[in-house]
Design a protein that fits this description.
About 35% of the residues lie in helices and about 25% in strands. By secondary structure, the protein is of the alpha/beta class. The protein has two domains: about 280 residues, Zn peptidases (Aminopeptidase, 3-Layer(aba) Sandwich); about 120 residues, Alpha-Beta Plaits. It is built from ten helices and 16 strands. The strands form four sheets. Strands 1-2-6-3-7-15 form a six-stranded mixed β-sheet. Strands 10-11-9-12 form a four-stranded antiparallel β-sheet, with helices on one face. Helix 1 runs antiparallel to helix 10, helix 4 crosses helix 10 and helix 8 packs across helix 10. The chain is elongated and about 85 Å long. The model has no long low-confidence stretch (mean pLDDT about 95). It binds zinc ion. The site of zinc ion has 5 residues, from helix 4. Zinc ion binds next to helix 4.
Length: about 425
């Protein structure tokens, strides 16, 4: 049997191991926030990969946002160096999962296997992807011990909350330096026949309108900050939203609705603070002197961050000229530039070929509407040869009864192993 065929057969043979590994990972509830059980899951991965001959390093993101002695931000990186010089291929998965939410019909941390699907919070996003990359890498190392270069697997914290205690921290410490890592595959649940090249950009800002407090029975003696915010929203509806809908991208963003610029009003708070649920008193009659809105603007590779900001700043300046007593502040909260790996980058063409070999399909190239850890690898690590590729159906992420299909994990593990054979070949 040819080496590639032996790899494929061996992955099939380890189906039981793949299922058990995925279940074990799901059964460690790594909820974020707050960042539960990161040490437990990293220690689990350390034990497993050390036994398979990997050098394993545990890194706590000390001082990163969210890191505390109660909720330490642990990360794990495992590396196996080949027998010859060559490129390093790195599989990066986040270990955190989002809150459970309502509507589950199975135990969210049970890892139940039913009809070829493994259920649980994080099953598709992305413990199934992590498990698939581990099986692929272990099989590759066992069957091709004289491979060139190096293979790495990392489990990193906090992706769901920005990745600052995870990939961003590791990138700052040089773990994604192009001198030590040349190819990165992030097994996020993008469907097994799609390659995700990157993501749109993000601009978060808080707009505050100011007013003047007065007695609610005589609002004319004050100035209502909420009405000023109403004017902002009215102008957004009239000019900004239609303008954003007209901006279309050449990026292959999925789903279709995200092929344009978008803006979400994340929250608005004006006037008196919300009362605690157990408070039974009445509100006090006051004119609100402050109203704050958080906006979440997603932008395209064709747009520039200064333009994106200017659209909002210009709208506010215009209101300040035309509307009496309109006073405001804008605070930028967060920005991420769009990123898109070139289609002819080595990791892209290799994984595309592997998808063809394993599934007999031409892959679909996509761009994610939201960001993920590729942003840090690109911007901090300065490593552009990076994609997201992994099993699982994107639409199931963060939903109740999340699952990952065993067949999907096997197929994507085969793709990953084929890609390793190509990128880290034995002589
Ligand atoms: Zn994810």
């Amino acid at each position: 049997m040819e080496l590639a065929d032996r790899l494929m057969a061996e992955i099939e043979a380890r189906q039981g191991d793949l299922i058990a590994l995925t279940q074990d990972l799901i059964r460690i509830p790594t909820l974020n926030p707050p960042g539960d059980n990161y040490l437990e899951i990293c220690a689990y991965l350390e034990t497993r990969l050390k036994a398979k001959g990997f050098d394993v390093t545990m890194v706590r993101a000390e001082g990163a946002a969210g890191d505390s002695d109660r909720y330490p931000r642990w990360n794990v990186i495992a590396r196996r160096t080949g027998a010859h010089k060559g490129d390093c291929v790195h599989f990066n998965s986040h270990i955190d999962v989002v809150e459970v939410g309502r509507g589950w019909t199975v135990d969210p941390f049970g890892g139940e296997l039913k009809d070829g699907k493994i259920y649980g919070r994080g099953a598709c996003d992305m413990k199934g992807g992590l498990a698939a990359s581990i099986i692929a890498t272990e099989v590759f190392c066992d069957l091709v011990p004289d491979f060139a270069g190096a293979v790495e697997i990392s489990g990193t914290a906090d992706e769901e909350s920005g990745g600052f205690g995870g990939v961003a921290y590791l990138a700052e410490k040089g773990w994604f330096n192009p001198d030590r890592v040349q190819h990165v595959i992030i097994p996020e649940p993008l469907n097994k026949d799609r390659i995700c090249l990157g993501h749109r950009g993000v601009w978060w800002a808080e707009i505050e309108t100011h007013g003047e407090i007065a007695h609610g029975s005589m609002p004319f003696l004050g100035d209502c900050a909420v009405r000023h915010m109403g004017a902002v929203m009215h102008k957004m509806e009239e000019t900004l939203f239609p303008a954003l809908a007209r901006k279309r991208t050449e990026m292959p963003v999925v789903p279709e609705g995200a092929k344009q610029s978008t803006l979400n009003i994340n929250s608005i708070h004006g006037g008196e603070a919300e009362r605690p649920v157990d408070y039974t008193g009445m509100p006090a009659p006051c004119v609100p002197d402050s109203c704050r809105m958080i906006i979440d603007r997603r932008f395209l590779i064709e747009e520039n961050i200064d333009e994106v900001r200017e659209e909002v700043l210009g709208l506010l300046r215009d209101l300040a000229e035309k509307r009496e007593n309109f006073r405001y502040d804008v605070r930028e909260l967060f920005r991420v530039l769009p990123t898109m790996t070139e289609k002819d980058a080595p990791v892209v063409t290799t994984v595309a070929d592997a998808i063809g070999q394993v599934m007999g399909k031409v892959p679909e190239y996509v761009v994610s509407p939201g960001t993920y850890d590729q942003k840090h690898i690109d911007r901090i690590g300065k490593l552009q040869n990076c994609i997201a590729y992994g099993p699982g159906i994107l639409d199931l992420a963060h939903k109740p009864d999340e699952y990952v299909g065993v067949e999907d994990m096997l197929d994507s593990a085969k793709v990953m192993a084929r890609a390793l054979l190509e990128l880290c070949p034995a002589p």
